[in-house]
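The data are quoted verbatim for completeness:
=====
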Amino acid sequence: MGIRKTTDIRRALQNIGLTNSVINAAWPSWWTKAAENSNSAVGELCFSISRKLGIDPTSLLTNSLEPKTLIGSDALFKNLRASNKQEASMLSAFGVAIGKILIKTIKDKFQSNETIPNVIKLRNIILKEKPFVTLDSLIATCWSIGIPVVHLKIFPLSNKAMNAMTINVEGKYAILLARDASYPAIPSFILAHELGHIVKNHFGSASAIIDLDDEFKKSTDKQEKEADDFATSLIIGDKKITINIEPTSSKTLAEYLLALCKEIKIEPGILALHIGFLLNKWDVAMGALNYIYDKKKDVRAEINNIAFKEINREIINDDELYYLMNITGYEG
């Protein structure tokens, strides 16, 4: 059998709907033009891509025009409007492949979801160190209990927007955030929501739970409601919030919440979103974020800066590290 050309490998990956950006991210840094003439090098290329994207390496090595994924479409998709089996399988395989790399780096820290403190105790643990539950405290908590968290920059499918994906590898978990934001409030809720899926043991035999829509819309899905309730209890608490103003102005709402937040121990941006949701004042609440925070932030970079300090680089190889950096946009 002749050597398969890399142009054919790329075309085959494109045929199953993968974006060029994710193909480029998975392409190993050690690949050179000279390797084109080596069967062993092309073989190693296929195995490298396979490990990163969850694709059957045999189907890459052969002349197959549509490589097969290693993971079936067993993921639980939340808020999915339309899809097909191939897209579902590809998203699941992509996430699980990243999750396996991340989970490998924290194996000594791992605790099962049964040992995670209940939501009120977890909130109180965070509040011992912080005035309220913040995004960085949520991320630190996840890493400390053996749940790695990264924020993806590159996605496998061009037509699917994703809030987050939580991966289950034999009872070990990783959270992949995906929704870009200029302020930490929305990612905080999304992360707490994904942690809720883990604590509430929503996976069953599924390898992933993939949230593909707006977390702040009411859902009739029982698991989504349970995850939302967990997130609300964790970042807001169990006390009823009373607002003594009519939030007609974003600036007025922001000023009011900044004065109130420390007293009730709720991060002001999250509090703004909560009020906006309860009172159906979403535009006012989103506008309030511009006044609550002193400037817009690169939230993805902040999340990944924490991640790459936590990742044990002695456990993963250079090829895997290079891929994680590419897929998250981490620049070091």
Notes: The radius of gyration is 21 Å. The chain has a mean pLDDT of 88. The longest strand covers residues 164-169. The beta strands are 76-78, 149-151, 164-169, 172-177, 208-211.
